[in-house]
Amino acid sequence: MKKYDVIVVGTGNAALSSAISAKENGSEVLVLEKAPKEKRGGNSIFTDGAIRFAYNDLQGIKEVVTALSESDLSEIQMPDYNTEDFYKDILKVTNGESNPELAKFLSNESFETILWMKKQGVKFQLNENQYFEINGNKNFWGGLPIKTVDKGIGLMNALFKKAQELGIDIIYNAEVNKIEMDHNKVSAVNYLDNNKQRITVNAEAIILACGSFEASIDKRVKYLGEEWEKAIVRGTEYNTGDGIEMATEIRASKAGHYDGCHAHTTDYNAPKVGDFSKPGDIYKKSSYPLGLIINKNGERFVDEGADFRNYTYAKYGKETLRQPDQKAFQIYDSQVSPMLRKEYNLKEATKIVANTLEELAIKMDINPDNFTKMIEKYNSSVQEGDYNPSVKDGKSTKGIIPEKTNWALKFDQAPYYAFPITCGITFAFGGISTNIKAEVLDEQNNPIAGLFVAGEMVGGLFYHNYPGGSGLMSGSAFGKRAGKSAAEYVQINKVDN
Ligand SMILES: Cc1cc2nc3c(=O)[nH]c(=O)nc-3n(C[C@H](O)[C@H](O)[C@H](O)COP(=O)(O)OP(=O)(O)OC[C@H]3O[C@@H](n4cnc5c(N)ncnc54)[C@H](O)[C@@H]3O)c2cc1C
């Protein structure tokens, strides 16, 4: 097979961003994907397309969503959000453990990156899940006002189209399992094709963008703990940590929170791994700040109103996993049910409806006495105050544990709704050590010549939790950078030779 300048491993957002960027910067690029063509696009194709960036103010939004008219803009109430806000959000939710260099890079590059994505043909729209309509205004909250048109499907279709236009070669059913070195520089990859034949392709530079290990049961148990064995995998079945293994075999240093991951509360009856015939993130259950979350003993176990959903959802999946039978219920009364996200009304959603608290408890298979007592106690703890779901309204409970610190309304208006949930793992936080040039670093912090990394494989960015919409931005920003760095490396290497 012909020798390429740059080989990119994977076809998710990070991989295709890397490939397009490397090509833009003058390299001949080959992309190798483990999945068959019909299962391409990795976790990225399963996403809701919500993408975080430092837009500064409404003017920044207008640059990205050019279709917005002056009249549309006049209905929008949106807090400003700059690079410092993005950076602080990362540091806040990661308990200060995020690598500051990487976090700064991500926040600083985010605006330029989203404009670059737009240039590649990705289309953006306002994120309808990130505002509440109040007095005719769209009141945005949580720093995530934009999503890609047609979610992850639209994003990936645009990137595949661009890759094709640029003449980037893609081989499917190519499970990359080894990186070869020559004189301390990467020189080739080996992959297994459909017939398990080993194929070698030579290249000057390699970009690993093939996800973390969330879809490997063995690695979940090894790194995250035994309780993760049965977690639902929300995205692709192919992210089994191969990239981490290949990189560490050639002395790359691991980095990041290996016993941490992003996990979301997910429909109890969702498929055990992401179903490529139904992408679009339809099983997640994100509206819990409007209601309550209880386990099968009828007990609450988290502060549903601790913060906007964007800053708590990635860690509440794990809390659900810790409950009896790894099961819980989100419950809503009819004063808030009209505000539930669309996923709650899809035919795929498991939904329980009841006219009394007792009936709801029986349908959830929870002891009705325990349940009604818990609700009575909760209702009597709710404090007076103005309710406003688009700001942290401080309308809280008092005297119960856990408290609900915002958006606490009495649970007393029938009909009542319950949605059984469990934990769905999104991606693992463990990755590979890198710097802001996306170079892979060895244990002495020296770059491994010719090896670059992007996306979920970037280690050290996320610990414990993550600000919603950062995964796609990380894939795009580090992917764009990895492609550029790889192409520059190839140029220099060619001159040297
Ligand atoms: C249901 C769901 C919803 C989400 N919603 C959002 C959202 O709205 N906003 C957001 O920011 N983030 C979201 N995320 C997180 C987001 O998907 C990831 O952070 C991001 O897409 C990861 O991109 P990536 O390119 O690194 O990995 P992926 O998109 O997973 O791509 C990795 C690719 O590598 C391939 N691969 C793996 N091993 C090999 C191998 N050995 N050889 C060749 N190829 C290999 C895989 O098949 C896959 O194609 C969501 C995730 C899920 C699962």
Automatic annotation (TrEMBL):
Domain spans labelled FAD-dependent oxidoreductase 2 FAD-binding: 5-470
Keyword check for Flavoprotein: yes
InterPro entries with a match to the protein in the record: FAD-dep_OxRdtase_2_FAD-bd, FAD-oxidoreductase_2, FAD/NAD-bd_sf, Succ_DH/fumarate_Rdtase_cat_sf
Domain of life: Bacteria
Cofactors that this protein relies on: FAD
Keywords: FAD, Flavoprotein, Oxidoreductase
PANTHER family, per database record: FAD-DEPENDENT OXIDOREDUCTASE 2 FAD BINDING DOMAIN-CONTAINING PROTEIN, FUMARATE REDUCTASE
Name the UniProt record assigns to this protein: FAD-dependent tricarballylate dehydrogenase TcuA
Organism per entry: Staphylococcus casei
